[in-house]
Structures are given as structure tokens and as C-alpha cells.
Design brief:
By secondary structure, this protein is of the alpha/beta class. The chain contains ten helices and eight strands. The termini are far apart. Strands 3-2-1-4-5-6-7-8 form an eight-stranded mixed sheet, sandwiched between helices. It has one domain: Rossmann fold (3-Layer(aba) Sandwich), CATH 3.40.50.720.
Length: 249
């Protein structure tokens, strides 16, 4: 690290568990964030400010005024812009020392499979099951750790799925893919603005821990927040021995 980086990341370096070695791991890491909306906004901003050296932000959508209640990557002056482009501007304004690439076309299973092979860790900040399962399949195929978050109304959840550990579950073990599952949408059911900030920030925290190799991640656990009562619940998640994605069954 150069002198400017030592100053920028000084408060991380002071943490014995992280230190210079951990910060250098962050600077060398490449992270894919799928979704630049409510969850992706705080997650991306904290990863950028914390010094994750290479961020790929993927989102094909454009900024609408209804996004601004919670999607803090964007502002009034970005209405109509692609979210990925708007997000890149915000991240580089926070930290010009990092590299931010964007993907502005809809990510299909093939493109996700190719892209995820090139990164160290993936954050799923999307809002639909089809993309979540495609991301999970690619992460399992390439043994990349996945930090998944979700938020709707007043309830959020976050988990880490890291199949580098042969005993760890994947996302499909917890939420099996099914044609008859109807995902709730913020556009029809609403979402509490600070909730996505809490969950997205936790995704960033888990990503940093996994990259730096510190602490105990949420691997094998799902953390659920009821923001109305501000109660957290932790649920153990076991690997499904006949999972169609990670078991080879």
C-alpha cells in the first residue's frame, strides 16, 4: 500500500483482526454485486469505501423517482440513467482509488456463469428468484462464496452460502427452485427504507469478513430481521444431501 492508502484505510489497519494484511486482501479482491437498487446501494458503497479494489456492478434497470426513497446510490439528477452507470459515479466519488466496472444488460445464466468465474465473491442484491437461482448455480459451479440479502415490507434476511466448504449449504438447499413460487415485489407490497440499508450493510460486512478471512461468517445460518419489533432471529441451514444444485444428485 502507498502512503495515501495507509491514511485512507487507517481505521481498518488499526483493527488487529484486519490489519495491513487484511486490507491488502480487500484491495486485491474482485467482487460482483448483482443489483444496484435498495440492497446493492449500501453494500456497494461500504465495499467501495472500505477499499475493495475491483467492483463489478451489474444492473440493467434505469433510475426512477420511486427508487429514491431507499436506493442511496442515486439522486434526482440521475433520473433516467442506467443504475449501474449512476452507481459507478457514486462509488468513484467515494473512492477514486478503486476500479469499478459495470454491466448494463440483463444477466442471463450463461453470462452469469462466465462472469462469476472471474471474481472472488458475489453479492446477490436482486429482487427475483430466477436471478437468485442463476447466481447460486454459477457460484456453486465455480465454488465462489455468495452473500445473499433480501428485504420486503418490514422483514429482511441475510445469509452466506460458501460451498468451498463441502458441508455448507447453497441457496437452493434453503429455497428450492419451483415454478409456482411467486416472489413479492416492493412495487406492489412496499419496503421500509432503512431496512434495505441494514441488510445491505450486513452483506458488505459479511463480504469483507469472508475476503479478509476474519471472524465467523453467516455460512450455514440465515439471519432474519423483523424491523417492526427490531428483533433478530438466527436459523441454522443444513446442506441438502439431494440438492439438485450442490449435491451432484
Amino acid at each position: 500500500m502507498n502512503d495515501a492508502q495507509l491514511l485512507r484505510y487507517a481505521r481498518h489497519i488499526l483493527l488487529d483482526e484486519l490489519g495491513i494484511e487484511g486490507q491488502e486482501k480487500l484491495l486485491a479482491a474482485t467482487v460482483l454485486i448483482v443489483g444496484a437498487g435498495g440492497l446493492g446501494s449500501p453494500a456497494a458503497m461500504y465495499l467501495a469505501s472500505a477499499g475493495v479494489g475491483h467492483i463489478i456492478l451489474a444492473d440493467h434497470d434505469t433510475v426512477e423517482i420511486s427508487n429514491l426513497q431507499r436506493q442511496i446510490l442515486h439522486g434526482n439528477d440521475r433520473l433516467g440513467q442506467l443504475k449501474a452507470e449512476s452507481g459507478r459515479k457514486t462509488l468513484l466519488a467515494l473512492n477514486p482509488d478503486i476500479d469499478v466496472q459495470i454491466r448494463t444488460t440483463r444477466m442471463d445464466p450463461d453470462s452469469l456463469m462466465s462472469l462469476i468465474a472471474q471474481v472472488d465473491l458475489v453479492l446477490d442484491c436482486t429482487d427475483n428468484f430466477a436471478t437468485r437461482h442463476a447466481v447460486n448455480r454459477a457460484c456453486v459451479a465455480h465454488k465462489k462464496p455468495l452473500v445473499s440479502g433480501a428485504a420486503i415490507r418490514f422483514e429482511g434476511q441475510v445469509g452466506v452460502f460458501d460451498t468451498r466448504d463441502s458441508d455448507a449449504p447453497c441457496y437452493h438447499c434453503l429455497f428450492p427452485e419451483a415454478d409456482d413460487v411467486e416472489a413479492l415485489s416492493c412495487a406492489t407490497t412496499g419496503v421500509f427504507a432503512p431496512l434495505v440499508g441494514i441488510i445491505g450493510s450486513m452483506q458488505a460486512a459479511e463480504a469483507i469478513k469472508v475476503i479478509a478471512g476474519i471472524g465467523t461468517s453467516l455460512k450455514g445460518r440465515l439471519l432474519i430481521l423483523d424491523a417492526m419489533d427490531m428483533q433478530w432471529h438466527s436459523v441454522r441451514v443444513k446442506r441438502d444431501p439431494v440438492c439438485l444444485v450442490c449435491s451432484g444428485a
